[in-house]
Amino acid sequence: MSPKIKEKQKPLLEVVNLKKYYPIKKGIISKTVGHVKAVDGISFSVYPGETMGLVGESGCGKSTTGRSIVRLDDPTDGDVIFQNKNLANLSKNEMRKLRTDLQIIFQDPYSSLNPRKRIGDLLAEPLRAHKLAEGEEIERKVNNILEIVGLTKYHKSRYPHEFSGGQRQRIGIARALILNPKLIICDEPVSALDVSIQAQVLNLLKDLQKEFNLTYVFIAHGLGAVKYISDRITVMYLGKIVEIAPTEEIFNQPRHPYTKILLSAYPVPNPHMRNREQIVVEGDVPSPANPPKGCAFHTRCPFAQPICREKTPPLDGENHQVACHFPLT
């Protein structure tokens, strides 16, 4: 169990059997002929003050999960329990009231900012929309949040194109933080940045978490960033969760073959560890429009057995959960 999770502590966020299917249309009348199962029945919990990492290959459903949690995409099925409320069942007006406690930081810091608005106006907009401040109070809050993320009040008169990628991501963080939320979905917030800038943004996120008691769902495919910032890690493959465990256990003792394969491809700077076992996985990721029967990973798993092709393994365990008929030891 992560040191940040206290016994009998209630989760801040519970995702229960979440599904997000996109219809496949065909013909002039746009007849639905199937569905892309981007997220296919996943469940996990996030506790106050912790960072839950969400990792997997591109297309595994990580970002769709994050967008479904904050209702940028409406879930097809399942429950998203946040502060004792099921977000999946709320109306737009009810959801609007919760936006101050639930925010998202997007992957691309440029396309997520309106290029026609000055930074000061972009940061003031959520305060006005939620009627949290007015007049000089708005200006004071904008100046304060810019200083917190490492910028100055003089930046608020500039437009997004006048900033570097790292600075724009700081602005994106400031926009999410200005409403004083409890939970922030970080949707690959450093993947579009240079390595040196990535470290600065990750350190900023960690500092802000301590200062404001924030809870993160940190989505990424780079294991280095996830290892640095996460308390626990959820591993996804083809719309399903295959493993959930504290970060140290995921890296030191992975129990699902897919997790072990991900880690074998993770570059390690320590020369004494470069001779570790390398696992070569063959074949392509199956289509989420036609996922394989049984375990989703069996078509590429070097340890697959006949039962893996017939029966879907449940996600079992307490502190270390794994969905595999033959988990690694």
Description of the structure:
This protein has 329 residues and is α/β, with parallel strands linked by helices. The protein has a single domain, classed as P-loop containing nucleotide triphosphate hydrolases (Rossmann fold, 3-Layer(aba) Sandwich). It has 9 helices and 11 strands. The strands form 2 sheets. A 7-stranded mixed β-sheet has the order 6-7-8-3-9-10-11, sandwiched between helices. A 4-stranded antiparallel β-sheet has the order 2-1-4-5. Helix 3 crosses helix 4 and helix 5 runs parallel beside helix 6. The longest helix has 18 residues. The model has no long low-confidence stretch (mean pLDDT 91). Keywords: ATP-binding, Nucleotide-binding, Transport. Belongs to the ABC transporter superfamily. One of its GO terms (molecular function) is ATP binding. This is Dipeptide ABC transporter ATP-binding protein.
